[in-house]
Automatic annotation (TrEMBL):
It is an enzyme of class 1 (oxidoreductase). GO terms for molecular function: L-malate dehydrogenase (NAD+) activity. Belongs to the LDH/MDH superfamily. MDH type 1 family. NAD(+) binds at residues 8-14, 34, 95, 118-120, 231. One of its GO terms (biological process) is malate metabolic process. It comes from the Eukaryota. The keyword Oxidoreductase applies. The lineage of its organism: Eukaryota, Fungi, Dikarya, Basidiomycota, Agaricomycotina. It comes from Cylindrobasidium torrendii FP15055 ss-10. This is Malate dehydrogenase. Homodimer. Substrate binds at residues 82, 88, 120, 154. Residues 3-146 form the Lactate/malate dehydrogenase N-terminal domain.
Length: 328
């Protein structure tokens, strides 16, 4: 029995993500929460002939608590998306409060659920969730994940094109965070190696495309939002990995933005001294089973990791301060 909950389920990501979760036989109950439209989305999905029972909830009558009751996995794509010219950090003003309130609901109703945060800016929203859970004395760092899978999916797609390899077979760790220079693809570890001639400006352009893939979609959508369908694909892929590992499947490893204690920091190495960082993580029945080291990096990759740290620190501090700053 696995109950999955989507918070922000009526949105551009929420709807196709809910569809993919409804399509999976691994999910036995699916609760959809949003401030609008979830009864319709749930009624629509409920006609799909898969085992999960689908229900929609709105804020009145304790809808959030009802949706979250008994949750095993909570995926959060609630909040506003970017428009051209905005950074992910520009979304903080609105999304920080949305994520704080949803995290409070999780802390009160389903503190043992796995929490998967999609809402941007992920570098800050994950620390926000952690601080809320800490305030309720229910923070378990093994159960909180920032979803950076779309960066991994993009890296696989772009490298698959270059190496003429099936992109589904291309495995590339993308580490760091989820915005611009904090996104660090470890291309030297690609399962489909780039040709040795692929260097200099060509390599720089590929790294830039992975780091700023989100901007490509924001620009193409021209004011109508950011990536939704590819994010739903990536979010479902990661959520189903968490569920498969929870059910006992072994050897599932994926990059995800997680809390690092001091031991994990020294394991990750390479000067990573931030409290949250995306790195390869082995998933297990209780969530994070083992945080993996970054492995051996090229000089270029070391420089990219170093360049990611200052922005990550600022983003993390901003999230932590949002919850802990004294109210005036
Ligand atoms: N982690 C990642 O890789 C990615 C993250 N994102 C982020 O995901 C978020 C959602 O993006 P879209 O689905 O395109 O936006 P959207 O605007 O289409 O959908 C957001 C949904 O959240 C709902 N919502 C707003 N306040 C809420 C609240 N208090 N409780 C519950 N639901 C609430 C809205 O009603 C709406 O249905 C954005 O912050 C976006 O930047 C987008 C793409 C990739
Ligand atoms: O670019 C955005 O704002 C949405 C996002 O996080 C992505 O597509 O990676």
């Amino acid at each position: 029995m696995v109950k999955a909950v989507v918070l922000g389920a009526a949105g551009g990501i929420g709807q196709p993500l809910s569809l993919l979760l409804k399509a999976s036989p691994l999910v036995s109950a699916l609760a959809l929460y949003d401030i609008v439209n979830t009864p319709g989305v749930a009624a629509d999905l409920s006609h799909i002939a898969t085992p999960s029972k689908t229900e929609g909830f709105l804020p009145p009558d304790d809808g959030l608590a009802k949706a979250l009751t008994g949750a095993d996995v909570v995926v959060i794509p609630a909040g506003v998306p970017r428009k051209p010219g905005m950074t992910r950090d520009d979304l903080f003003k609105i999304n920080a409060g949305i994520v704080r309130d949803l995290a409070t609901g999780i802390a009160k109703t389903c503190p043992k659920a796995f929490v998967l945060v999609i809402s941007n800016p992920v570098n800050s929203t994950v620390p926000i969730v952690a601080e809320v859970l800490k305030k309720h004395s229910v923070f378990d760092p093994k159960r909180l994940f920032g979803v950076t899978t779309l960066d991994v999916v993009r890296a696989s797609t772009f490298v698959g094109e270059i190496t003429k390899t099936d992109p589904q077979q291309v495995v590339i760790p993308v580490v760091g965070g989820h915005s611009g220079v904090t996104i660090v693809p470890l291309l030297s570890q690609s399962s489909a190696p780039l040709p040795s001639s692929f260097a200099g400006a060509e390599l720089d352009a590929l790294i830039h495309r992975i780091q700023f893939g989100g901007d490509e979609v924001v620009k193409a959508k021209d004011g109508a939002g950011s990536a939704t369908l590819s994010m739903a694909y990536a979010g479902a892929e990661f959520a189903l990995k968490v569920i498969r590992a929870a059910k006992g499947e072994k050897g599932i490893i994926a990059p995800t933005y997680v809390y690092l204690d001091d031991a994990a920091k020294s394991l990750v190495g390479n000067g990573v001294d931030v409290d949250f960082f995306s790195t390869n993580v082995e998933l297990g029945p209780d969530g994070v089973k083992e945080i993996k080291s970054l492995g051996s990096l090229t000089d270029k990759e070391k420089a990219l990791v170093a360049a990611a740290i200052p922005e990550l620190k600022t983003n993390i501090e901003k999230g932590v301060a949002f919850i802990n700053a004294p109210k005036l």
